[in-house]
Every structure is written in C-alpha cells, then in structure tokens.
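Feature request, filed as a ticket because there's no other form

It would be nice if the structure record came with a short human-readable summary line next to the tokens. Right now we just get the raw output. Example of a typical job, pasted below so the devs can see what we mean:
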Amino acid sequence: MTATLQLEHASKSYDGTLAVNDVSFSVMPGTIFGLLGPNGAGKTSTIRMTIGILLPDDGTVRLFGAPLTRSSRRRIGYLPEERGLYRKMTVRDNLGFIGELAGLSSRDARERGFKWTRRLQLDGWLDRKVEELSKGMQQKIQFIAALIHDPELVVLDEPFGGLDPINANELKDIVLELKRQGRSVLLSTHRMDQAEKLCDEMCLINRGRAVLNGKLRALKAGTGKHSISIELDGPADFLAASPLVEHFNNFGNAAELTLHSEADSQEILRTAMARARVLRYEVREPSLEEIFINVVGRSDG
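Raw output as currently delivered:
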C-alpha cells in the first residue's frame, strides 16, 4: 500500500539554527498519525514542510507516492494552530472563499459549507461576521474550512485547544469518522492523553529530532516496563525498598509503582501479600505521557 505522506530525512534551519533535524515518517491511508513533542520541538516546521508551505533544506516530501506539487496540495486539508479566518467576512463568505481556493465551484463550496455548519450546529451563524463568534465557534469554522473540499489527507495542528469537552468530543468523532472512510490524519498535539486515545502510529520529536517513531502498541511494548497500582489493608511504603521498583508514589494505604525493565510484576504481588492484605492490584502498560517524559528526559540528558 502506498503511503499517503512520506517525509524522508527532512531538515530545516532558520538563521543557522537547526529546527528540524533528519526527520522521517510515513502516514498510511486509514490511519491517525500523531506528531508529538513539547512546545518548540519542531512540530510546526515539520507540518509546514509536509504541506508545502516550507521546503526542506535537505530530504524529500512525497504525497500519494509522488513529489509534492501544487495540484496535489489540493488533496490536503490543513487546520493551522494559528487560525486564519477573515474576521470581517461572514461565516458563509469565509467558507465559500476557502472552498473555491481549494478548487470547488462557488455553488459546491456554499452547499458544503451549509452542510457542515448544520452538522456542527452553526448554520444559524452563517451570515454573522467571524469576529462576532466565540473562539470555540471560530475554531469549529476553521475545522470545517479544512474539510470542506473533502481532502484525502487532513493535517490538524492542535485541533482541540481551547474547546470545551462537548465541542472537543464532537470534533474527535469526526476525526475518527475520517479514519473509517480511509482518509489519513496527521495530528499534531502536545496533549498526550488525546494522542494515546486517537493515534495508531506516532513520531515523537524533541529538539528537532525524532526520538521515537512507530506503531503506538509496539512502542508501548518496547519499553519493557510496567506500572502497578496497589491498595493494601495497611501502609504500602515498604514496597519502595524493593529492588524491582524504579519509581514509587506513595498514597498511604495505596501506591503507584513503575518497575525496572524486565522486572517480574508477580514478585511485587508476592512481596505485598507476605506483608499485608491486598485489596486491589492492577498491572498496566505505560501511558504515552510516561513514555514521553522518559524519552524526552533521556534525550535532554
């Protein structure tokens, strides 16, 4: 299967400062790919190279198996972190204009704009100026603008920032719908909880370099570590002395533990049962946030 998007050994510098350093990844059809990293890691510069706003100093960008061209860019929908609506224009005119820029006829652009605003319960605001809308409403209009031309690749840069839980959930459902339709979604965020729930694959960037790249399930399995939540009928602090424990977070009669790589979680259970009555014991794989903190900490060291 041909990748929707391929970034191969891409680098980008600004005034001698290397913002993106030899980054490679592929986004396949029907997947949500997370581009993750702390603020200032190089995510936005990477995104701008994938959609042709910036050209890489080194490396290549391929879209649908071919070099990026002006015509292929029309197959991309882009939601920038810095919103770009025309504030003095009405919602209707904004969506019509943006749709025509993406190659739609005036009629199709307006029909699709109405369809999407009705779905997101914004059709009553079509003839209001953008500046009259709340920030959440403006963000939903920008989201519609990214999808109005029915793109095959959707690039979302911090799409849920500033939205209340109801609106964020509404947009999340649409992103999952795009995946089911076979579209490709490149999602850039620093929200690890969102990425963990949505993404099939990911690339973690720190200081311009890709420090982790691959399928989320394999990356979790590859850490070799497990976290344990335990609740005892008595103090749990004695577990901190176990040589199997790398990190111990004490809550009195309960604790959260991170084990060293290859440690046997059953040995911790036996240790606990020898000293106290175990009320609850749960072994879980590391969260994406824990992996993120661990990997970024190592790469910063």
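Something like this underneath would help us a lot:
The CA atoms of residues 117 and 123 lie 5 Å apart.
DSSP finds ten helices and 14 strands in the chain.
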